[in-house]
Task: structure prediction
Amino acid sequence: MRRLRHRSSALVLPVLLAIASFALSVTARAEDLVSQLEEFLETRVQRDRFSGSILVARDDKVLVRRGYGMANLEHDVPNTPETKFRLGSITKQFTAMAVMILQEQGKIDVHEKIKKYLPDAPPAWDEITVHHLLTHTAGIPSFTGFADYPTMMRRHMTLENLVASFKDKPLEFKPGERFAYSNSGYVLLGLLIEKVSGKPYASVLQASIFEPLGMKATGYDNPLPVLKHRASGYSGPGPFRVNSSFIDMTVPHAAGALYSTVDDLFLWDQALLTETLVPKAAREAMFTPDKKNYGYGWGITKLFGRRTVSHGGGINGFVTHLLRFPDDGVCVVVLSNVEGTPVGALAEDLAAVTLGEKPKHTGERKDEASSRKGASELKGKP
Result:
């Protein structure tokens, strides 16, 4: 018996040593990756004059979580991971999720005509389905591209006023025929959510998404209440900064009116890997590309030969990017309070470092607003 015990100990000890060695190796690799990311950011933040917050995570572990620059230049308030930024079009993925939750409740069918839920819709919209709105294939022109938008964005608008601004415009193409990014379509989804739920859009998202996920630093950006850690938005050429032009936050609505933090968006990323909000089939529908590699509030494509789901956002004073590699467990969140900041390029390069790939955007800085469609979708500039 004693001999057997000695033999068992002799067998177990190497296994324990191997496990300990492996754990130390994993820890060392993680620490090395963190050092690589921080070294990359030290140079890149200076080159891009970056102001904002960044989070990089892999396999549910946060590798980098930092703020850079100023949340408020006039009062010398620095950006931190707790700083709240306007999201712009990242809002759309939350709108899409609210629609999918309502579908699971039997209140919406994404393949139904919107006329079923919005009986006052004009005849031109008779063939438009909820799916068309979600995938930007409805053909409804985007109100943010209208000539009077720079004036309109300064006015307080009801949801009905917003819809009236594009309700009588002719369709740009037959529903389902092609893709054309449309903020009007997502505003209509906001109206649809309110009609079928009987509650305000903001309340629906709060109850069905933010509260269940513990996203306590996310909401509809109403500028009247005092909101701690709210970033101010800026624009300006080069290193010069001026306050961004005013936009009344009733205008972007379900197309771009939310605010959040890097931490809350990481909670969101993690929830999208589970069935916390909707079943697997509903999540797969959201991440199935229609035309132009666009699903329900997400762009679906490949980067470094790996599947990505992502979206950028741009609204007066802010540019944002959420980049996810769901099959690799990588999430990159970049939020900036300075227009033109190349957040998409920065997110891609941070992902490259994390995945052991070569960063692509190492040359001169290229401003986001001029290089990526969608960055200025909600800004009042022709």
Notes: DSSP finds twelve helices and 13 strands in the chain. The radius of gyration is 23 Å. The CA atoms of residues 318 and 337 lie 4 Å apart. The domain at 49-371 is CATH 3.40.710.10 (Beta-lactamase).
